[in-house]
Specification:
- The protein has 120 residues and is an alpha+beta fold.
- It folds into 2 domains: 7-38, no CATH class; 45-109, no CATH class.
- The chain contains 3 helices and 4 strands.
- The strands form 2 sheets. It has a two-stranded antiparallel sheet. Strands 3-4 form a two-stranded antiparallel sheet.
- Strand 1 and strand 2 form a beta hairpin.
- The longest helix has 15 residues, at 48-62.
- The radius of gyration is 18 Å and the shape is elongated.
- The two termini are 28 Å apart.
Amino acid sequence: MPRANRTCGHRTGKENCPFKATHGNRCEEHAREYEEKRGGKVSRGYDKEYDAARRRAAVVVAGGQAVCWRCQEKISPGEEWHLGHRDDGSIGGPEHARTCNLRAAGLKAAGKNWSPRRRR
């Protein structure tokens, strides 16, 4: 089912931007501003070292030998995974995409600490 037209989620004071959201939840102008503020790939920690570590980890995950560095549970071949970063910016290792990597990022942004959750 297609999504309903939404307005840009960028807020200026108490008002939302009135333009249509065309890039996720932002209009074209605010999406561009967000990406400029966010910085480039290398400034966010995705450099040649990261790319090489991701290639090495992909072989381990595909072979069924990967263990998530956050929760210490197995990552099955074909399962969605990310190569995670530690809080200091160093490469952590392969981790479950949603339950570990993205959850940890959301909790960090909210000022909370990550702790393992039982997987179903």
